[in-house]
């Protein structure tokens, strides 16, 4: 039995709602209805069921109605028509008190820009859902701490959101949602505001957590790779309607129509992919703190023959090679500056992969990717080849 | 022009309304005038009874800590207050201070809830906004006439006039502050099942705090600016020497009293500003 069942759920924004609904039933399209009645169709008769423990991804471009749809499910936006059933109860028609109870006990939400309360500590943020239920302080602190431990933030309870990085903030958002042990987790573009590398980490972590939690998750995204990575099933949305629902495999192999096909078709990847998509996390040392000895150790640890050098603000300074570092150690040189090589070609994040080819074959070291002089990633030959071969696991996001 | 329209007796209507309100509600106004007036005079006299040096030290210490242990405001307060005392205006200063504090407190007590109401209801906003405009643009002297009719002369009508003049910023900023809370935070509060009051007290008011405090700062400054005007209807304080200097064309005493008001204004402004910056 499905945990959550959505049936013929529609949302029309505007003044002539009755007329617009009639036109929807006649099968008119979003722009036709806009022309005729002036109303905007947010969601057009969406129906789907989500099973327990499933990650159901709703995917679409901006304006496709996916954000509206997820808000109809927990009724942050009032549905115009249709039903949302959780455990046999219809959310769309229940009264305010019942709705509040369902929101407290069964549904939690994670937001795109995290939605954390800046004046509350991490712990107090994670407690919020329990606090509004009137749970005693000690009990809710315990549960919130447990949730924070789960996402790896157990040591940050007394910090404030602004003191944490984006990825960490979203972990707090996740912990807040998990603290009241909901049946269904609604995630609205939860990782879209994060850096590509962090985003991939978060996706992995979510999958790992899901192994043990087995929550029912509805996940909204505009990113096909994200959908393919984490979704058990994917619903594709266009102009407020769901155009296809299926497993990632089904969507890729049997696109339901041209729209889906265009979404997933294998375009010339070297033109589409940029430096950002294929970069890896760089190993670095800090010129202000480290010397040749640390450099050598770090290289041995990672099995690499050169390492990039940055300052404390991650501004790229150059690189040192293992040979130079070991020679320097023998001569007892302490300062990295003496062996630093500074003539490295760099690329910006949005550099097309095509233009990276030449650079990478001429360069003895991986190509550093910079953003305003700051080192954000490196590109190695292997990942360029793999990306060209269409191996999507090397890609950060497309 | 437009001679075919007979003159509308607007002034007569307002007179009639004022008279009607004065006589009908005298059972409300009289006790307010007496009790509240007594309370305010008592407060002012209690403040005056405290030796000035105690107050100077107290203000200096508060200023020191409220500005994050910096010496500037504390030093200014000490010099400024001693100067006012030196000019023989200490009792007037205490009266003015009492009037401003009480008027501001009342403005806040009335203004914040009205601002909250406005932020929650479009209808309320549509009704209240023009009233606020009216209150702020009508020349302040005009309030004095019904104020005297209702409350006779003294501190109480001064507070009444100041309330009308100084409450709007608190209302406006409260409304603005709450409406400015990002949709995502409001959605977060809703999605986790907050009741209306939980959403207000746990999310919206804390988020709007800085904006509301900026409004309160404005309210305090505006009620201080009413001091001189209120002295025209017999409110005691620093406004009186300004008024009498004006009537006798004495530039010197007028400047001294005016300077005292400026000193008080700067101290109160910096105090309220530093509270909301925290």
How would you explain this protein's 3D organization?
The complex is a heterodimer of chains A (398) and B (278). Chain A is of the alpha/beta class and 398 residues long. Chain A has helices at 17-25, 30-37, 66-73, 96-105, 122-131, 137-150, 166-179, 196-213, 224-230, 248-253, 258-264, 269-272, 275-278, 292-302, 322-330, 356-362, 381-388; strands at residues 4-13, 40-50, 55-59, 81-86, 89-90, 107-110, 184-188, 216-221, 233-238, 241-246, 284-286, 306-310, 316-321, 347-348, 367-371, 374-379. In chain A, 41% of the residues are buried. Chain B has one domain: MetI-like (MetI-like fold). Chain B has helices spanning 10-24, 26-49, 52-66, 72-86, 90-120, 122-137, 140-151, 155-179, 183-191, 196-231, 239-247, 251-277. In chain B, α5 (90-120) runs parallel beside α8. The chains are: A alpha/beta (398), B mainly alpha (278). The A-B interface holds A 71, 74, 76, 100-105, 107-109, 111-113, 115-119, 128-129, 131-133, 176, 180, 186 and B 184-185, 187-195, 198, 202-203, 206-207, 209.
Major sheet description of chain B = none
Q: What is the count of helical runs of chain B?
A: 12
CATH classification, class level of the largest domain in chain A = Alpha Beta
The CATH architecture of chain B can be named as Orthogonal Bundle
Please give the count of helices of chain A: 17
In the CATH scheme, the class of chain B would be: Mainly Alpha
Q: What is the domain tally of chain A?
A: 2
Beta-strand portion of chain B reads under 5%
- What is the terminal separation of chain B in angstroms? 59 Å
């Amino acid at each position: 039995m499905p945990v959550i069942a959505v049936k013929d759920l529609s949302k029309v924004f505007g003044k002539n709602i009755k007329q617009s609904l009639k036109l929807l039933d006649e099968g008119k399209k979003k722009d036709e209805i806009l022309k005729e009645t002036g109303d905007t169709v947010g969601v057009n008769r969406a129906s789907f069921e989500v099973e327990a423990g499933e990650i159901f991804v709703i995917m679409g471009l901006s304006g496709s109605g996916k954000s509206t749809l997820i808000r109809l499910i927990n009724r942050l936006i009032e549905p115009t028509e249709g039903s949302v059933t959780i455990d046999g109860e219809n959310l769309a028609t229940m009264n305010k008190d019942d709705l509040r109870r369902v929101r407290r006990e069964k549904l939690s939400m994670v937001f795109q820009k995290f939605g954390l309360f800046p004046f509350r500590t991490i712990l107090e943020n994670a407690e919020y859902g329990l606090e509004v239920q009137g749970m005693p302080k000690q009990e809710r602190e315990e549960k919130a701490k447990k949730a924070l431990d789960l996402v790896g933030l157990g040591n940050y309870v007394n910090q404030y959101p602004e003191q944490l990085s984006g990825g960490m903030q979203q972990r707090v958002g996740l912990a807040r949602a998990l603290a009241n042990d909901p049946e269904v987790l609604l995630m609205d573009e939860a990782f879209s505001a994060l850096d590509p590398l962090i985003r991939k980490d978060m996706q992995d972590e979510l999958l790992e957590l899901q192994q043990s939690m087995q929550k029912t998750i509805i996940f909204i995204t505009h990113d096909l790779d994200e959908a393919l990575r984490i979704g058990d099933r994917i619903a594709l949305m266009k102009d407020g309607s769901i155009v296809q629902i299926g497993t990632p495999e089904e969507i890729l192999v049997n696109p339901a129509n041209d729209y889906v096909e265009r979404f997933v078709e294998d375009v010339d990847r070297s033109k589409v992919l940029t430096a950002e998509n294929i970069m890896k996390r760089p190993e670095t040392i800090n010129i202000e703190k480290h010397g040749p000895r640390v450099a050598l150790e770090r290289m041995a640890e990672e099995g690499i023959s050169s390492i990039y050098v940055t300052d404390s603000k991650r501004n790229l300074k150059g690189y040192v090679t293992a040979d130079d570092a070991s020679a320097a150690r023998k001569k007892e040189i302490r300062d990295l500056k003496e062996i630093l090589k500074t003539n490295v070609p760099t690329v910006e994040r949005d550099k097309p992969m095509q233009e990276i080819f030449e650079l990478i074959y001429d360069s003895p070291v991986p190509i550093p990717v910079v953003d305003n002089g700051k080192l954000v990633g490196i590109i190695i030959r292997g990942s360029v080849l793999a990306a060209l071969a269409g191996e999507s696991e090397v890609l950060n996001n497309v | 022009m437009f001679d075919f329209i007979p003159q509308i007796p607007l002034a007569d209507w307002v007179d009639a309304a004022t008279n009607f309100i004065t006589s009908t509600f005298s059972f409300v106004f009289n006790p307010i005038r007496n009790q509240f007036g007594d309370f305010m005079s008592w407060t002012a006299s209690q403040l005056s009874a405290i030796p000035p040096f105690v107050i100077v030290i107290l203000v200096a210490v508060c200023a020191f800590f409220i500005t994050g242990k910096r010496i500037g405001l504390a030093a200014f307060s000490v010099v400024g207050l001693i100067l006012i005392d030196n000019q023989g205006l200490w009792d007037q200063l205490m009266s003015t201070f009492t009037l401003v504090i009480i008027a501001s407190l009342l403005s806040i007590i009335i203004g914040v809830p009205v601002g909250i109401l406005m932020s929650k209801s479009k209808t309320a906003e549509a009704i209240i906004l023009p009233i606020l405009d009216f209150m702020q643009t009508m020349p302040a002297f005009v309030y004095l006439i019904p104020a005297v009719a209702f409350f006779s002369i003294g501190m109480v009508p001064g507070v009444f006039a100041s309330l009308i003049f100084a409450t709007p910023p608190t209302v406006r900023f409260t409304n603005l502050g709450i409406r400015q809370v990002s949709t995502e935070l409001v959605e977060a509060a809703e999605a986790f099942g907050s009741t209306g009051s939980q959403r207000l007290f746990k999310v919206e008011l804390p988020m709007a705090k800085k904006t509301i405090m900026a409004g309160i700062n404005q309210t305090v400054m505006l009620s201080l600016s009413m001091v001189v005007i209120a002295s025209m209807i017999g409110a005691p304080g620093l406004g009186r020497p300004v008024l009498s200097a004006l009537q006798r064309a004495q530039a010197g005493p007028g400047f001294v009293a005016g300077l005292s008001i400026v000193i008080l204004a700067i101290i109160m402004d910096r105090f309220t500003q530093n509270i909301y910056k925290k």
